[in-house]
Amino acid sequence: MDLGDLGDLVTPNGPHEQWQDHGLGLLRTILHQNGIVTDLLSTRAVTSWRQLKKQLAGYKMLIMNIRSYTFPPARKAAQIFKEVNPNSLILAGGMHATVALEELKEIAEIDRIVQGAGEEIIVDLVKDPLAFERVTMGVSSKSMADWPMIDRELWPKPHKRLQQNFNWPLEPECGWGPAPVVTMLTSRVCPWQCVFCNENSYIANMRRRPVEMVIDELNYLDRKYGVGSIVIHDSMFFQNPKWLEEWIEKYPRKANKIWPYWAAGRSDTVRQWPEIFTALVKETNWNTISIGLESGSDRILRLLNKECTEEDNDFTIDLINQLGDDFLIAEGKSLMAKDNYHRFPGDEKVKGVDYQFYRELLAGQYDDEVNKGLDGVNYHPDTQSYEDALVKA
Ligand code: SF4
After folding, report:
1. % of the chain at pLDDT higher than 90
2. Is domain 16-137 classified as CATH 3.40.50.300?
3. Which tens digits make up the pLDDT trace of 71-125?
4. Do 16-137 and 173-323 fold alike per CATH?
5. Is domain 173-323 annotated with CATH 2.60.40.10?
6. ipTM, interface predicted TM-score of the complex
7. Nearest C-alpha to atom 3 of ligand 1 is from which residue?
8. Strand order in the sheet with 181-184
9. For the chain, which residues make up each domain, given as ranges?
10. Phi-psi group of 350: left, alpha or beta (phi > 0 → left; psi -120 to 50 → alpha; rest → beta)
């Protein structure tokens, strides 16, 4: 079951909720390559639970990759699935099983829970789930080189009204580069430990995908579907200088085209390796850069355990400004700890946030104040145009 808010692949509010789930794609590819053929339903491809319920009859097993922000639809889907198929089995894994095991254990409908990575265990688990304990530790690949190339045609299709601009099985344009967009992972796990993120506490470390494999996959996708730009989904693309140098050397030479791409970095390493950063921007078309600056205050940066300083941030901003005017720096993250990592509407757990204020803000109560001084700008809140929103921001 592909998970997300109801209707995200029918009438989405924006492009990001249409992105495909790489965990689902990888695990489904592994299952199919091992002779276990699955059907795929999606909570995003329906607009009501009734619609989903109609599609569930007759199945013996439900498999879900649950992230914290998809926990509510996952719980609901599990309950409906068991109601329709009382003798079925439900297997659940994903990040939420690792960071909030107790919440998954409380859902009686879920029969087997896998913590950690699933790629080296999923085939055995699906073949014989009852041979496993209710909670089982997953097994991760040692290197991303061991992963098969995702068969992107195993991802859910959007509703037909979205098909023209979606570019399935590639993905829609989101303002960071031309369509069709390829989302791609080249590395797993950022080694830093910012308090609000710290993914290395719940994802096993593994070796980066070899540069040649990344380029081969891009060229294959280009031959088959035509590629417009790339979103490198890595939490931290700008790490491992040896890999980055090989990327600088090979991507411009071996890729069918030097497609522009989005990727993320940190300001301390930009300051540490400015030549590599500059070469990436100039020679590999890294033209949409996300740097998690987080704060301009050393005190706050220390509180966040960011391990970057104001000086690192200033250096990086200056370097990017020198490199050109065509960059968008866009990364915002929230304080995250074990008891406040939920991120879905109505789940107002983050300590210190005045949610009442944000509700009033969204209801337009402060529009006059927010828009003060923008009289000369042609801003129409109803158009939801990206440029207009940027002007307002
Ligand atoms: S916020 Fe960025 S630098 Fe910090 S741990 Fe997460 S991905 Fe790494």
Report:
1. 68
2. no
3. 999 999 999 999 999 999 999 999 999 889 999 999 999 999 999 899 999 999 9
4. no
5. no
6. 0.99
7. 192
8. 181-184, 229-232, 261-265, 286-291
9. 16-137, 173-323, 355-392
10. beta
